[in-house]
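User: Can you fold this complex?
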Amino acid sequence: MAKPKVATTSLAGCFGCHMSVLDIDDRILKLVELIDFDKSPIDDIKQLTVRCLVGLIEGGCCNEENVHVLQEFRNHCDILIALGDCATMGGIPALRNTIPLKECLDEAYRNGPTVYNPSGKIPNDPDIPLLLNKVYPVQEVVKIDYYLPGCPPSADTIWTALTALLSNRKIDLPYELIRYD
Amino acid sequence: MGVTLRTNTKKIVIEPVTRVEGHGKVTIVLDERKRVVQARLHIVEFRGFERFIQGRPFWEVPVLVQRLCGICPVSHHLAAAKAMDRIIGGEKLTPTAEKIRRLMHYGQIFQSHALHFFHLCSPDLLFGFDADVAVRNIVGVAAKYPELAVQGVMMRKYGQEIIKATAGKKIHGTGAVPGGVNKNLSIEERDSFLKDLDQMVRWARGALKIAKDYTVSKLEELAPFGSFESNHMSIVRPDGAMDLYDGRLRAIDAQGQKIFDRVDCQDYVDYIAEEVRPWSYMKFPFIRSLGPEVGWYRVGPLARVNTADFIDTAEAEAERKEFMAVTAGKPNNLTMAYHWARQIELLHAIEKIGSLLHDSDLQGSDLVVKGERRAEAVGIIEAPRGTLIHHYKVNSQDQVVMANLIVSTTHNNEPMNRAVEKVARDHLSGVEITEGLLNRVEVAIRAYDPCLSCATHALGQMSLTVELLDHQGRVLDVKSAR
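Assistant: Here's the predicted assembly.
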């Protein structure tokens, strides 16, 4: 029987949640006996190829590309997990939600003490995605099945949740694994 | 899909760039005769940290800004803490505080370089640039070279455990506070690290040997690969030694002549500027005195081994000499030499960890100092990927009122673009897009170990499709990664 597939992606996150997946350390060798990774930043597979059992989403949505990828994951994954605080509630990137986007762009590309920008233009090429007005948590865009809190969720949290799902058990996280820092 | 037609040109788009920890997108534009006229690495996301941390209390910053990047959070944590040390006038740390921070930092360098080498790069080195996509990852390495994969995993774990012991958490810790640290290292923690130290040193030597043998044995093939002459920049200790935690800025040209030297980090703004270009959210730094055209430079392991006069740990210094001998003592400008230089630093980091663990100052209890308050400060550190600059102004209400961040990968923006263009020119021919070509572009980018997430203070992911169009917009070839 083919192994179930797990796909992962990082949207408007910092990659810390992906690093926390790697912090399961040598258990990763056990994990790949149970599953196959589909599209993920840790391999070279760039498109979701088949139906996946689990999709792990790090980060919220801060640009149009994030929204497309998130929808692609929802369409291809049976179970979608919001991994970490940014996916769950926008996280630190959502601090910009209280500030007009233009002010953030001006600070980075016009006002900074080392900025050299004779034309005064802010990056706007068609090859870079449009920014959203705000940073959105993923459940405001698609239906999410599970939330794993933490910045990042600890490796044990991720391991416990994944192995429970893979063996069709209820996810039972002890109190100390449910935390938001 | 980002295919844009231009008059008499063809445009190839590669996205996302995987296994580079963060995200980018490559476009290659061809003219009518199928020659590469332009190649660009676009950084596709933007966060806005510089603006939205304004108004936050300064003591929160070391914990907050590391959320720029979960791959090397310790670097941001420490660069911000170093700046805030100065804000509270506590930049002269107690021996315990400075050594705990250094231990944290070398733990970070060790885990990051191990991660990059084993998890992200070893597939290229072990399987070649044309290998099947299905095996080009750490799982493929584990299947064919199980011992090596386990070493990579355990070395990363060792570094992560050091970070946890000094910062409180493996990712996004809280150990450094303005003026010092909030804990020392217990005897039990120290002994648990000493127990595995010899093993880690042996494995680091082994990793370095793989990178060295690979580079030396394939020197002719690798020499032109994505390579070009450039300036190099890093901080160095006042006596010219490699120092990844603290020092003064030095920049050299491709021949090794100094452009500036022993510049006080507080004055970085007089020496470096960043050009904004419309097609990338990542800016393009350059040395002010040389201007944006020729003033760009490289940072990171290759630049650091080139700029340092020597390394103050014995084994790494012997390796540095061997490295420099290949180019007769001149700076090495090979893109693929980054891997070798990075593993020299891996060995240096574990040597440093070893000597720190034997220092009883780590068990001291004098952790925090403060002095006369300042309104503005700069903190600079050598992160795994290169020079990291944090610059803040703080008002009398303790609020941040200005922040300027130049992260490691940003310094390497122009070099990465040059590397992509070089590879595209050398390896793209006709209308056939091969997996090998695509991966070669990524191999060149990967050599710089770009942490694109923090470079734009951002990241995201897209799906890879490459389309080749003729000048009338007809599709000649379409390739996906799988």
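Residues 10-46+415-480 of chain B form one domain. The two ends of chain B are 17 Å apart (CA to CA).
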